[in-house]
């Protein structure tokens, strides 16, 4: 069986307060976009020589680190504690860039839970799958339903934003990921938590053309200071005709929303990973 984990963007991101446990409470809107990985599982033959119950092969974009530390393996191990799962082969084709603020790893983990649920008829239901996903990462639960949602707390308290689908369905998106890695810990270290005058969930109910001056990502100020090339990319997205442009998450990818399909998009951003498509 195969599924296609999608990336997400953040429409606004405000760091509203620091928690007693060291984490931060945020307000943001997660929105799925048509940039996908591919995730496939097959039962492992009982005679296949493997040191683990979960054999992972990754192709496409290269990922650093031990494959057994990948979130798709952790998702399998998490469910295996409660269910009798067979040994499996996993093939993960990576197209969503990592360290980009696009939630690729979290999406892979959530879709792995959905894939195991469907393949082995675990009959978990959305709420139970979201509970499992939340154990793997703050934004993992979002990818279970994979629909526009307002996120609060550490990012796992979700409320549907169905009206956004109608608002944005005619728009195009352009993604730019330069060869820069921004540490999430570093990004949080330079942010002063505060509540915005207007919540992002109210701003996005306005026409997209009004978002530029109101819908903000609190990470941009400090991240742009340390990585000025990211600010330049955002400015170029506006020059290319974007109605709205922003950094996604803590970066380092930036996106623009366009009324028409952006022309010669990749050539405008040399040495960067780019993606353009319809929302």
From TrEMBL:
<feature type="active site">
    <location>
        <position position="139"/>
    </location>
</feature>
<dbReference type="GO" id="GO:0050515">
    <property type="term" value="F:4-(cytidine 5'-diphospho)-2-C-methyl-D-erythritol kinase activity"/>
</dbReference>
<keyword id="KW-0067">ATP-binding</keyword>
<keyword id="KW-0414">Isoprene biosynthesis</keyword>
<dbReference type="GO" id="GO:0019288">
    <property type="term" value="P:isopentenyl diphosphate biosynthetic process, methylerythritol 4-phosphate pathway"/>
</dbReference>
<dbReference type="InterPro" id="IPR020568">
    <property type="entry name" value="Ribosomal_Su5_D2-typ_SF"/>
</dbReference>
<keyword id="KW-0547">Nucleotide-binding</keyword>
<feature type="active site">
    <location>
        <position position="8"/>
    </location>
</feature>
<feature type="domain" description="GHMP kinase N-terminal">
    <location>
        <begin position="70"/>
        <end position="144"/>
    </location>
</feature>
<dbReference type="InterPro" id="IPR004424">
    <property type="entry name" value="IspE"/>
</dbReference>
<dbReference type="GO" id="GO:0016114">
    <property type="term" value="P:terpenoid biosynthetic process"/>
</dbReference>
<comment type="similarity">
    <text>Belongs to the GHMP kinase family. IspE subfamily.</text>
</comment>
<comment type="pathway">
    <text>Isoprenoid biosynthesis; isopentenyl diphosphate biosynthesis via DXP pathway; isopentenyl diphosphate from 1-deoxy-D-xylulose 5-phosphate: step 3/6.</text>
</comment>
<feature type="binding site">
    <location>
        <begin position="97"/>
        <end position="107"/>
    </location>
    <ligand>
        <name>ATP</name>
    </ligand>
</feature>
<comment type="function">
    <text>Catalyzes the phosphorylation of the position 2 hydroxy group of 4-diphosphocytidyl-2C-methyl-D-erythritol.</text>
</comment>
<protein>
    <recommendedName>
        <fullName>4-diphosphocytidyl-2-C-methyl-D-erythritol kinase</fullName>
        <ecNumber>2.7.1.148</ecNumber>
    </recommendedName>
</protein>
<dbReference type="InterPro" id="IPR006204">
    <property type="entry name" value="GHMP_kinase_N_dom"/>
</dbReference>
<dbReference type="GO" id="GO:0005524">
    <property type="term" value="F:ATP binding"/>
</dbReference>
<feature type="domain" description="GHMP kinase C-terminal">
    <location>
        <begin position="206"/>
        <end position="261"/>
    </location>
</feature>
<dbReference type="Pfam" id="PF08544">
    <property type="entry name" value="GHMP_kinases_C"/>
</dbReference>
<dbReference type="InterPro" id="IPR013750">
    <property type="entry name" value="GHMP_kinase_C_dom"/>
</dbReference>
<keyword id="KW-0808">Transferase</keyword>
<dbReference type="InterPro" id="IPR014721">
    <property type="entry name" value="Ribsml_uS5_D2-typ_fold_subgr"/>
</dbReference>
<keyword id="KW-0418">Kinase</keyword>
<dbReference type="Pfam" id="PF00288">
    <property type="entry name" value="GHMP_kinases_N"/>
</dbReference>
<dbReference type="InterPro" id="IPR036554">
    <property type="entry name" value="GHMP_kinase_C_sf"/>
</dbReference>
